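Mods, move this if it's the wrong board.
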Amino acid sequence: MEYRSLGRSGLKVPELCFGTGTFGAGNEFFKAWGETSQDEAKKLIDVCMEAGCNFFDTADVYSDGASETMLGKAISHLKREDVLISTKATFRQGVLKGPNQVGSSRYHLLNALDASLKRLGTDYIDVYHLHAFDATTPVEETLDTLNTMVRAGKVRYIACSNFSGWHLMKSLSVSERYGWAKYVGHQVYYSLVGRDYEWELMPLALDQGVGALVWSPLGWGRLTGKIRRGQPLPEGSRLQNKSVVDNGPLPEDEYVYKVVDAIDEVAKETGKTVPQIALNWLLRRPTVSTLVIGARDEKQLRANLDATGWKLTPEQIAKLDAASDPKLAYPYWHQRQFEERNPRAV
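Not the wrong board. C-alpha cells:
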C-alpha cells in the first residue's frame, strides 16, 4: 500500500485508514453503521495490518467511548509503534451533561484527551482531531492547549474536522503567529457525489499544506453499487433510516444515478467494482492523504482494500469528473468564469 505525507508534515500515513465507527454500537445511530464484536474487531485489524493499512480512526463520541475501548483492545497484541491512532474530541458524549463537557475549551480538551488515552490503553495519540469548530472558545485557547499536548508528548500531530475555510485559515494563522503546532490534516466529507470540498477547502489545503483525511468516501452508502435507477433501496441500507443519514443538502436522485452510470461504464473497462472505482478516483485528487474506510465484515474490508494498487486512466477520471460536476454556489460559479486569473485546484 502506498504511503503519503499527512499534509506538510513528516508523518507518513497509508492511503487507506480504517474507521472504527462500527465498534461498540452503543446507540441506534452507530448500530446503523454496524455492530462489530470484539473478536471481529481484532480480526479486521489484523486484515488491515496484513495489507499495510496500519492507521485506525475513532472518536470519543463514537458509541460514547466504546469504539475507543474496543480499538484499544483490538490492537493490544501489536507493537504500539507499528500502528497509528487517530481520535477526536469536541462533541458531547451522551453520558456527560455538564456545561463544560463539550467544545474545544482547555477544560474540556484536557479531560477528553486523558479519557481517550485511558480507553485506548496508550500514552499518546498519533493524530488528535478537533471533531468540529467551537465558536464559543477563543481560537488561541484551543490551539495553546493542543500545542501543550504536543509538547507534553501526549499528541504527535494535530488535525481538525468539518471546519469551514475561515475557521481553518484563522487557526493556521494563530499557530504561525505564536509558533505553535499547526493543523497538518483536515478530516472532511468528500466523494463523487459530494464535491463541495473542492470549492474553498481544497485550494486552502494546497496553499497551506493541509492533508485531507476523507470521511464517508462512498457518499453515505450511495456509491456501494447497490443504489441504481428504478430499484428500491436495499434491505439494511442506512439510507432508509433518516435519523442516521447526512443532515446536509441531499444530492438529487438523478445526480446520483448519473454518477453511478458513469462509474458502471468505468467498471466494465477495468473489471473493478463501483466502490473500488469511487475510492480510487478520490486517491487521484489533490491534497488527499488518506481515505477513512469502514467495513461491516472481512469481505467488505478486503474489497475496499483492493481499491489500491492500481490507477484509473486520465480518460476514465475525466469521465467521472464530468458526470459528477456539481452545481456551484456563489462566489464559485462566478470565479469559474475567469479561470485565466483564477485557475481551478482540479
